[in-house]
Amino acid sequence: MSTVYYVDETAGVDAPGNGSESAPYQSLAFALFTHGDAVKLLIRKDPNTLYDEPTQSALKKAKKGAEGLEKKKKKAEELAEREAKEKTAERERREKLIEESKKIQLKEDVSLPKATKIVHLAPLRSKRVRVNGWVHRLRSQKDIIFIVLRDGTGYLQCVLSGLVARTYEALTLTLESTVQLTGTLQEVPEGKTAPGGHELIVDYWRVLGAAPGADDAFTNRLNEKSDPSILADLRHLVLRGETASSVLKLRAALLAAFRETLTAHSLTEVTPPCMVQTQVEGGATLFKFDYYGQPAFLTQSSQLYLETCLPALGDVFCVQESFRAENSHTRRHLSEYTHLEAELAFINFDDLMTHIEAIICETVDRLLANPTSAAYIKQLNPSFKAPARPFLRLSYVDAIKWLNDHNIMHEAEDAEGNVIKEQGLTVMVPHKVGDDIAEAAERQMTDIIGTPVFLYGFPAELKAFYMKKMRVDGEGHVFTESCDLLMPGVGEIVGGSMRIDDLDELFAGYKREGIDPTPYYWYTDQRKYGTCAHGGYGLGVERLLAWLANRYTVRECSLYPRWPGRATP
Ligand code: 4AD
Q1: How far is CA 117 from the centre of its chain?
Q2: Which residue's CA is minimally distant from atom 22 of ligand 1?
Q3: Nearest Cα residue to 403 out of 367, 448, 457
Q4: What are the φ/ψ torsions at residue 556 (nearest 5 degrees)?
Q5: Smallest Cα–Cα separation from 307: which of 558, 520, 30, 155?
Q6: Which of 190, 199, 268, 388 is deepest in the core (most CB within 10 A)?
Q7: How many beta carbons lie within 10 A of that of residue 434, not counting itself?
Q8: Is the Cβ atom of 301 under 6 angstroms away from ligand 1?
Q9: Nearest CA to ligand 1 atom 1
Q10: Can you tell me the distance from the alpha carbon of 245 to that of 262, in angstroms, rounded to the nearest whole number?
């Protein structure tokens, strides 16, 4: 007896059904196509009807369908065969090319000049030049190879064709290999664009250091979809990207522009130590270490050292790393950051804020006036506009009112300063004078205002021991001559103040903060030997850069950022 196959037109499936009673096919045509007509077929409309033999007309129709399926199958087989043949032919062609390529030896013209950096190429149009660099982009089109070469000073489109594109090295070239390319620098034809407006028509080249392909290829280590922790581990490779390297180029330009501006304002640059034995901004954020058996810290701020320079060098500034051991994972906190600090003698509080504003605006103007740095700003932050002067000045007390008027609340705290929670949710209350304005509230305020804002006159209890008092209000709050400069998108980028210039007041400040004055003898001496009204500020370079280059986090603005748990690479 012949085998029976079942077809259920509603509940069955052709593939992967098998035509058994428990897994019936859906169409008679498929059953015929799969098993031929020598088998017994039973069919039903749906699981509610009984299986029956198919009618003659249904069989006839199904036969036609089966023939169609057969044709389709043949076609697919033919196509697969053709593709396999083509693949083999392509592999053989490539193998042959590679075999032939091994015989090709390019001849070097030894009379050539020394290699040039890409940034210096413009005056060398139509001349033969030689450049070294990394293969930033690579594309083959027929027998032409296009390379975008990167040498850290710029990008250069290079074209390899003819013999130079047929060498073994050409056929096996990989991204991020180092190469030396020699050829004629040609203006790109009208209607086409290339970095610098020219391209190198290569006539001689060689690989200096081949990067791996296959599994270990650069793009397999790193690509746009890589996880943030992988990007952090591979920061050394991320830096090679166009955005990361532009941010660092802009950072370099920013530091140079700051130095020019500060120097133009008659400030002298000094280099204070990083290893210190005194605190500036409170003991909670100090990185401690053993210094030949004595306790020491990584500096939080060079301010106190700058103050000692005033009588010797006049107004001073420094660009120094500062270290903060705070467990902050926000997008504006680093454990190590570049701190630009300055100190000025014989000024008042108004002079201080005017100076900070001038330094920032003049530095931005310098960057925008320089075509190279202006291009980086345009690339990274196309809608950037230099901020208008003067910056808005908002007193701390007015800011508290502003926050309450805008329904921006503060986390409720108990007498010990612990956040109060109810049913797992933080209780929010209006701000009151004496509250530390939280980062989120500060950011909301800055973003709503939308321009740089000087927030000034913070209560003494929120600030460091050295800050000069401004006034006492009716409720006994003591306010200081302190200011934070807030920028839209980032928040606080500068913290500054006038400093206590009276010896007794300084001792009271040490006492209030529970600081032993002994190791501060050198700082105290400044108040003894010719005190003066003075003030200064610290600017977070990564924060300013995040604002300027429109970066989401300061982590993108540091060469090798450090944050809690991250000190690699
Ligand atoms: O407000 P801060 O703590 O002030 C001082 O250290 C003063 N002694 C500076 C001075 O007057 N010479 O820090 C100053 C600036 C902040 O406004 C912020 O831009 C930056 O330093 N900053 C940080 N940047 C990145 N990560 C951190 N953890 C930072 N802490 C402060």
Answers
A1: 26
A2: 540
A3: 448
A4: -80, -10
A5: 520
A6: 199
A7: 13
A8: yes
A9: 495
A10: 26
Geometric angle at alpha carbon 31, from 27 and 37, rounded to 5° = 130
d(CA 420, CA 412): 6
Ordered mean pLDDT values, 10 residues apiece, the chain (569 residues): 86 87 92 89 92 91 92 93 93 89 85 87 93 97 94 97 94 96 92 91 96 93 89 96 97 98 98 94 90 96 98 98 94 97 98 98 98 97 96 96 94 86 90 91 93 96 91 86 95 97 94 92 97 98 98 97 96
In a 3-state reduction of DSSP, which class is residue 460?
A: helix
**To 10 degrees, the CA torsion angle through 346, 392, 550, 365?**
-60
* Secondary structure (3-state) at 27: coil
Cα(189) to ligand 1 centroid in Å equals 51
Rounded to the nearest whole angstrom, what is the distance from the C-alpha of residue 93 to the centroid of ligand 1?
63
State how far the Cα of 213 lies from the Cα of 561, in Å rounded to an integer: 29
Q: Which residue minimizes the CA distance to atom 31 of ligand 1? A: 540
The alpha carbon of 408 and the centre of ligand 1 are apart by a number of angstroms equal to 24
Q: Is the CB of 561 under 6 A from ligand 1?
A: no
Distance 341 CA to ligand 1 centre (A): 9
Pairing of strands 198-209, 155-160: parallel
118-218 fold? OB fold (Dihydrolipoamide Acetyltransferase, E2P) (2.40.50)
Where are the chain's structural domains?
Answer: 4-83, 118-218, 242-391+451-557
Our answer on whether the CB atom of 166 is closer than 6 Å to any ligand 1 atom is no
Report which ligand 1 atom has the smallest distance to the Cα of 494.
17
Superfamily classification of domain 4-83: asparaginyl-tRNA synthetase, N-terminal domain (3.30.1910.20)
Neighbours of 547 (CB within 10 A): 24
Nearest to 498 by CA among 473, 479, 513: 479
In the numeric block, which tokens belong to residue 92? 């053989």
Domain 242-391+451-557 classification at class level: alpha beta
Helices and strands in the chain: count of H runs, count of E runs: 15, 24
Per-residue tokens: 100: 């032939």
Q: DSSP for 270-281? A: ----SEESS-SS
Q: Let me know if 403 is exposed, middle or buried by CB neighbors in 10 A (0-12, 13-18, 19+).
A: buried
Cis-peptide, bond into residue 24, ω within 30° of zero:
no
CA of 538 to the centre of ligand 1 (A): 6
What is the spatial distance between Cα 362 and Cα 537, in angstroms, rounded to a whole number?
Answer: 17
Residue owning tokens 């004595």: 294
